[in-house]
Amino acid sequence: MKTIGIVAHSFEGGSLCFLTSCLEGSKQLGPHMHPTVVLSAIPMGLSMPGWESDDHNSVAKFLAEGVNQVAAAGADFYICPDNTAHIVLEKIANDLPLPGLSIAEVVCYEINKHSWKRVGLLGTKWTMCGNVYSNALKNGDLQKLIPEEAMRTALDKAIFEELCQGEFKPETTQLFIKAIEDLKSAGAECVILGCTEIPLIINEDNSPLPILDSTRLLSEYGVNEALNDRPITIKNGWLRVSD
Questions:
Q1: What is the mean pLDDT of residues 133-157?
Q2: 74 is in which domain, residue-wise?
Q3: 153 in the same domain as 132
């Protein structure tokens, strides 16, 4: 089996990714079994000034440090359960010591299985308006729909001030449900939970649309890669996405 390296950005998202990886491993291998997992957790607070000032070089330094740590610990590839972090990871992928599994490519691979075409996206302001999902969806001939600006601002604030810090308020859950309802009214057929903390409050039971849980999907695809005995295939610093 290959060793999975988890490069955490927020501790809530990193924890969910680790737990999901172990549970998926047990599902496939049996009780108490899973691929070996090594984890790095550079505090996200160190990167926040870079995010706020659009200094991606500063953020890249900390993300690269995380990848270097899991590489040194024996990982064969890494997964980063943070959608926003992929904005920077895409810029430095070829300079990293390990290939990564792209969270957006994993999600789009899953979307295509269902033949959905109009896709809602929730996440931080950087994820909703950035290029990571825009490019991945466009390459798959899929249409991206995002909330209006006022809703985007409210969601972004809730993510950083509440969800990332382990605070889950009923009214915040309702805010995200309302955002999904709005996307459904705009024609979305499904919604990407494009922030690792959103699945902590939104699931198939309370979502008005079918969900793409980016964190859990990334973990599951990572386990599949670890259990597959084929050689790793790399293109531009990224693993080939497959079942």
A1: 95
A2: 4-102+216-239
A3: yes
